[in-house]
Amino acid sequence: MLPSSLPTPRLRDPDSVPVLRWGIVGPGWIAERFVKSLRENTRQQIVAVASRSRERAADFARTWSIPGAFGDVQEMLALDRLDAVYVATPHNHHYPDALKVIEAGKHVLIEKPLALNAREAADLGERARARNLLCMEAMWCDFLPKYDVLSQLLADGALGDVHSLIADHGEHFTIDHRIFNPDLAGGPMLDLGSYLVGLSVKVAGKPKKVIAIGQPAPGGRVNGQTSMLFEHGNGMHAVLNTTLFSNTPCAATIAGRDATLVLPGPFYNPGPFTLTASDGSRTLTFEDPKNRYDQLYHEAIHFAWCVGEGLRESPIRPLQATLDTLSTMDEVRRQIGVRFNEERD
Ligand SMILES: NC(=O)c1ccc[n+]([C@@H]2O[C@H](COP(=O)([O-])OP(=O)(O)OC[C@H]3O[C@@H](n4cnc5c(N)ncnc54)[C@H](OP(=O)(O)O)[C@@H]3O)[C@@H](O)[C@H]2O)c1
């Protein structure tokens, strides 16, 4: 049943969590936004950055006033005064980089997807557990106030039986972007599809049936677009498309018998959504400024809170959610014939 008003987001005060000393691996596009968001919204300390090039690390460190700059991850990990590391390298570097971090005894926050496939992700999870470390996927949307309200609505059954999820994520990239590079696990699935499959798993759990079709990008070196049809255990159908060919609305609609929730594009970013009763009698609107990457800090605050509480599994993004998402994407890739270099014998 539609509630009288929307639930309030359960926000954690950034000043209420332990201040971690962070290192960063991969000073690229998202790392820059992560640092900016942490600097503007939290007291978290970014103490070191590691790149494949000492000069690039030093440039990044200068720009963001970070005290330590390293041309090698292992050198950075030798620091005593380091609590956690944010891995922001391309997808196929997540596993080897995170492995080094775990072996050095540091907590690790890994950009999405946590690893190339469920096998790698499970291995990282087990190794982190064995060393009593937190290993969490930086699926930033899951930590946004907007997704928290969405989670509360789903848990409260506000939509009634959820029968359909329809979502797309298409983005235009220039040909020089790493997404076209087969040696960096290119194609839309891991970059854009993670949000689609992650939402489907969040709403209805791991799908029991997966049907997928794919089409190569020009030149045929990576997948260009993939369409997915899932049947979930609760009967929900998910109809999902991700493409590199052009920009699409990136919207998501979650339809239940009692109400329909519409997330305008980009559905995984901060922004408003509406919940409308099926008889059209009422609409509730969640208002949220569309301030995109400013809200990256929520994932870091949650991570620091988990560390402070001694949690080695995030209650918001537990390893199982990551594994369910990745194993579903593994099946999609199996059906469309996409294997990454690291998966070949
Ligand atoms: N949360 C989000 O909204 C969001 C948005 C975009 C991307 N992401 C995720 O973040 C990760 C990084 O994406 P990005 O767009 O930030 O990538 P990017 O701009 O290419 O940065 C990745 C960095 O990784 C380092 N790197 C290490 N090995 C590399 C290699 N073999 N080739 C290229 N770079 C290498 C590079 O730094 P050095 O050359 O200095 O070593 C590079 O700057 C991806 O997993 C992606 O899915 C998340």
Brief summary:
By secondary structure, the protein is an alpha/beta fold.
What does this structure look like?
- This protein is an alpha/beta fold and 345 residues long.
- It folds into 2 domains: 14-139, 3-Layer(aba) Sandwich (Rossmann fold), CATH 3.40.50.720; 142-295 and 313-343, Dihydrodipicolinate Reductase, domain 2 (2-Layer Sandwich), CATH 3.30.360.
- The chain contains 9 helices and 14 strands.
- The protein has helices at residues 29-41, 54-63, 73-77, 91-103, 118-130, 145-155, 188-204, 297-309, 319-336, and strands at 21-25, 45-50, 68-70, 84-87, 107-111, 135-138, 162-170, 209-216, 223-231, 237-243, 252-256, 259-263, 273-277, 283-286.
- Strand 13 and strand 14 form a beta hairpin.
- The longest helix has 18 residues, at 319-336.
- NADP nicotinamide-adenine-dinucleotide phosphate (NAP) binds next to helix 1 and helix 4.
Supply the key terms.
Dihydrodipicolinate Reductase, domain 2; 2 domains; binds NADP nicotinamide-adenine-dinucleotide phosphate; 345 residues; 8-stranded mixed beta sheet; alpha/beta; Rossmann fold
Number of helices in the DSSP assignment: 9
CATH class of the largest domain: Alpha Beta
CATH architecture of the largest domain: 2-Layer Sandwich
Helical amount: 25-40%
Q: Please indicate the count of domains.
A: 2
CATH H-level homologous superfamily name of the largest domain = Dihydrodipicolinate Reductase, domain 2
Secondary-structure class: alpha/beta
